Amino acid sequence: MANVHIEMFFDKDSATFSYVVSDNNTGAAAIIDPVLNYDAAAGTVSTEDADKILAYLAANNLKPVWILETHAHADHLSAAHYLHNKTAAPVAIGEGIKKVQQTFKLVFNIGDDELLAKGDYFDKLFADNETFTIGTVQAQVLNTPGHTNDSVSYLIDGNLFVGDSLFMPDSGTARCDFPGGDAHILFRSIQRIYQLPDDTNIFMCHDYQPGGRELKYQTSVLEQKTQNIHVKADTPEQEFVQKREARDKTLAVPRLIYPSVQVNIRAGQLPKAEQNGVSYIKIPLKQQG
Hints:
Elements: E1 4-11, E2 16-23, E3 28-32, E4 35-39, E5 44-46, H1 48-59, E6 63-68, E7 77-78, H2 80-87, E8 91-94, H3 97-107, E9 124-126, E10 131-134, E11 137-143, E12 152-156, E13 159-161, H4 183-194, E14 201-203, E15 218-220, H5 221-227, H6 237-248, H7 257-264
Parallel strand pairs: 3-6, 6-8, 8-9, 13-14
Antiparallel strand pairs: 1-2, 2-3, 4-5, 4-7, 10-11, 11-12, 12-13, 14-15
Helix pairs in contact: 4-6
């Protein structure tokens, strides 16, 4: 019998998977990459997806002991802060978040009174190879940067949650053109993943269903090594880098990058409310021509 149960939740708007990983022995659970629903046109946020997670936890008598972020996402807002307030579970991320906060503190002109860029807002910053527990289940943090400075993967009982570093094999790998991204570094992170046992299960953070195929959220190290369209086990580093960088030049800016990053570097908290009690999202403007 497996030591853990993995329950998937899907946000169609951002094509994001969230997970609850629970210890079958104790009922302790970790929530991974939860989504805060955001309507950009209306300027509203809601907790529809997060409330589904809470309902699942309650229905199954599960006790969340961690809220885990694989990185500060650029395509959806995080519900980590909301779930922390509801469950008291600590919010954790890789210690590379400090670099990401430092970068975007300047981009959004955020003052020290709101962001020190020292990992503030998060309850736990994980170091590479650090271990933690979910009840009786051992888990390990693997630094897998390249998509972003703070990208980590969580290895939990033979299951790896990779964030955006890898997609399903027919979608390849994450883009590397965000601040702090680097295709060479991503290649080396993927090689680290490929050194894990072939039967290690890999769980996606996104699936964009190329060709209109059915939704998929799970693959394996072996499947990635043999079928990934961007980087197989024998793909040379320079070949991958050239392919990745060429593709990145064709990609549009993510639709929700500015709202997402502002909230996610604060562990899912909205920007500080102004004197009228309202929080605002900043959109940096650039003059073309």
